[in-house]
Amino acid sequence: xxxxxxxxxxxxxxxxxxxxxxxxxxxxxxxxxxxxxxxxxxxxxxxxxxxxxxxxxxxxxxxxxxxxxxxxxxxxxxxxxxxxxxxxxxxxxxxxxxxxxxxxxxxxxxxxxxxxxxxxxxxxxxxxxxxxxxxxxxxxxxxxxxxxxxxxxxxxxxxxxxxxxxxxxxxxxxxxxxxxxxxxxxxxxxxxxxxxxxxxxxxxxxxxxxxxxxxxxxxxxxxxxxxxxxxxxxxxxxxxxxxxxxxxxxxxxxxxxxxxxxxxxxxxxxxxxxxx
Length: 276
Ligand SMILES: [Zn+2]
Ligand SMILES: [Zn+2]
Description:
Layout: E1 3-7, H1 21-30, E2 35-42, H2 64-77, E3 83-91, H3 97-106, E4 111-115, H4 135-152, E5 158-159, H5 182-195, E6 198-202, H6 204-207, H7 217-225, E7 231-234, H8 247-256, E8 261-266, E9 269-274
Parallel strand pairs: 1-2, 2-3, 3-4, 4-5, 5-6, 6-7
Antiparallel strand pairs: 8-9
């Protein structure tokens, strides 16, 4: 695996200030990668509550002008050594379809990840261990809501970290399996296949101690079985040391799930790369 197509820089407010784009580029080179795609967070209307209890809905938004102004010179500077692509990770919500359509038409992104971070108006990242519902109900509700997001928004290329919510459950993966949520997950997979979107294989699940990357291998197998072919790969690093995280396992996991190719996007068009 010679590319990492999901990574953050300090344009994302949950990445440390020290994660500058150039620091990330240098580390990617050091790790022997050939291509990377920056995908900083853009979560419009994100329910972020600051420490003083005030709502800051722009907490996960960056200025696209500034983003391109910073990244384009780096793309040129490293040309021939590392191919740097410029993408974005959009936070999906049902009412944002038109807004994201305009945003992605306005700027020349290579790759757009659509991720669901907010469920029932909250990001489980900030709400772990305070949920009223049990994990099983929490996960089911999240998958049902994710399907609504995926139906409502067209302006993305790949659906990010499908079982993200499991990271933040009280007992994480204890009550999670593809089988337990097959009806809900199948609807999501069928919807992205019908829309011609990719599914993302995101190795951060291994970093969070789930014992699997996102999504679970049984979900990957099911996606393949349903005819899903577009699969993007990224480690979702917010710090340089997490670039290409667990890539030594990635090829084997994907092959075991029936994939012989993975997909990268350049100028929003898919390219297929053989898994060796
Ligand atoms: Zn994400
Ligand atoms: Zn991310």
